[in-house]
TrEMBL record:
It comes from Salinimicrobium marinum. This is Helix-turn-helix domain-containing protein. GO terms for molecular function: DNA binding. Residues 50-100 form the Helix-turn-helix domain. NCBIfam families: excise (TIGR01764). Gene3D superfamilies: 3.90.105.50.
Length: 103
């Protein structure tokens, strides 16, 4: 598997031998950076009180198509203040997700 690497940091440090400098190249894996960005996005979404459709899909794990189906059939609590964009109250979404608990 080929991976794309980007050079993220270059530093020159002095070695133990007098007058000798070592070039240190640190390589940051793009995959690791993407994972970190996704994690940061998830943390930010978890702190929001109102979620967009895309954020609600990621938050619940429900596909976009199924989320549209739930909103159009009024089976999930949502708001459409301008008649176009769909928003979800995170507390109501949590309540909806936890309905009908099984013992």
């Amino acid at each position: 598997m080929d991976r794309d690497f980007s050079w993220s940091f270059v530093s020159i440090t002095k070695g133990t031998t007098p007058g000798v400098a070592f070039l240190k190249l640190e390589i940051m894996d793009d995959l690791n950076l993407k994972d970190r960005l996704i994690r940061m996005e998830q943390l930010l979404t978890a702190n929001k009180k109102v979620l967009t459709l895309e954020e609600a899909c990621r938050y619940t794990g429900i596909s976009r198509a199924y989320m549209y189906k739930l909103t159009s059939s009024e089976r999930i609590p949502h708001s459409k203040p301008g008649g176009k964009m769909i928003y979800f109250d995170r507390k109501k979404l949590n309540s909806w997700l936890l309905r009908n608990p099984k013992p």
